[in-house]
Structures are given as structure tokens and as C-alpha cells.
Write a structure and sequence with these properties.
Layout lengths: L1 H22 L11 E7 L5 E7 L4 H13 L1 H11 L7 E6 L2 H21 L17
Parallel strand pairs: 2-3
Antiparallel strand pairs: 1-2
Helix pairs in contact: 1-3
Subcellular location: Cytoplasm
Subunit structure: Monomer. Binds 30S ribosomal subunits, but not 50S ribosomal subunits or 70S ribosomes.
Protein name: Ribosome-binding factor A
Amino acid sequence: MANIIRQKRVGDEICRILAKMCTDGTLRNLPLLTNCAAVEMNRDLTYARCYMSIPGSEAVKKATLQRLEKLKGFMRHEIMQQITLRQAPDLRFYLDTSLEYGMQIDAKLAEIKAQQADSPVTSATESTEPTEEVK
């Protein structure tokens, strides 16, 4: 249990460092709003899966991931200066698609809401069946 907590804490700290490096201009030639969304560490803290949020087209995202791969050594050096670890974790970069997925869900919900607003709604008190009058 303690190992899982340490993995989470080290991953959060690496994510904070990477996000700071992306926003303060330490990493040059990255698109604006590039950010580290999350970092998952393996059990022995030697590998870090870094999920990066990169705005733009697919070509821009691919080029940015290649740029991050080239800057991997510099980022490992910066991480080791700020965190005391036995070994610098190997950084592996992945696209964080949760923002795009959330936008797709919002668009579908808005579409459903617009369809419901266009169609007439029958209330529970209005019955579609004819009622018989009681004498």
C-alpha cells in the first residue's frame, strides 16, 4: 500500500515539474497550452508514462511528441535536480485525449437537448388514449 502511495506522489510531482517546464518557456518550440495532464509510475519508479495535453491538429501533436522525445534527457536532468530519487525515470510520452473526448460528449449532449426541445413533449396528465365519460 505504501508503494502505491509513493508512486502516486512521485508521479504527481513529476507532472508538476513537467507542467511548469512547458508553461514557463524552459522547453522551447512547443505549442502554447501544451501541458502535462498526468503521470503514472511503475512499481520501482523507473518508468513514467507522461500524458501530455497538446492542442492543435494531428500533425502538430505528432511533431510536439517528437520534440518532447528529443528533450527527454534534459527533462530527466531537471527532474533529478528537483526530486531525490535513486534513478531518473525513463519518460514515455502519450497524448491525453480526455479533453477532446469531453468536448465530443458535450456536443452530443447539446445535440440531444436540441432534439428534445424541438419535439413536442407529452406530459403525464395528458393521455394519448381517448377517455370515456362517466355518467
